[in-house]
Amino acid sequence: MTNYTAIFCIALAANVAVTYYSVKGSKNNADGSNSDHDVEDVKKMKDKQHKSLLKRYLCVYLMAAASDWLQGPYVYALYSGYGYIQSDIAILFVAGFGSSMIFGSFVGGMADSGGRRKFVIIFALTYIASCFTKHVRDFSVLLLGENS
Questions:
Q1: Over its length of 148 residues, how does the chain's per-residue pLDDT go in tens digits?
Q2: How many distinct helices (H) and strands (E) make up the chain?
Q3: Which of 67, 119, 126, 132 could bond to 111 as cystine, CB 3.0-4.6 Å?
Q4: Is 146 exposed, middle or buried (0-12, 13-18, 19+ CB in 10 A)?
């Protein structure tokens, strides 16, 4: 097993554990021992609202993810068409994934405290700006676009 595979497996196990315990903790906090009908009605209403929100979120998230995935194969061809060699293209891709790793670690918490709607708008504007940088043939501008 290579170092990359071992690191991936460790990170995957850590993510699964954190997700499991956070979901388990939220279920424990949501479960109450009070048997009042009013409390049950409120829980059912909140659960219904939560499911509705999740469906809307999932729809928008999947569209955003699909747009990102659809451009992936063409970005390599675009960079190759600009005349960059494979090692330069690899640097651009690693810069993009590295910035996702670094910024993804704390931007979620910032969105929780600063407002998710505001951060979604910031994400959309940053993504648009990143897409515009793809049409510039300057390596430093492309690198900036990968890091946005």
A1: 577 788 888 888 888 887 777 666 655 555 555 556 677 877 888 888 888 888 888 888 888 788 878 877 788 888 999 999 999 999 988 888 888 888 888 888 888 888 888 998 998 898 888 888 888 888 888 888 877 6
A2: 6, 0
A3: 119
A4: buried
**Nearest CA to 64 among 119, 10, 25, 3?**
119
Burial class of residue 76 in the structure, from the number of CB atoms within 10 Å of its CB (0-12 exposed, 13-18 middle, 19+ buried): middle
Q: What is the DSSP letter of 145?
A: H
- Cβ atoms of 146 and 132 within 8 Å: the answer is no
Please state the pTM of the whole predicted model: 0.56
The two three-digit tokens of residue 76, written as one number: 């390599």
Distances from the Cα of 31 to the Cαs of 44, 54, 55, in angstroms?
12, 19, 22
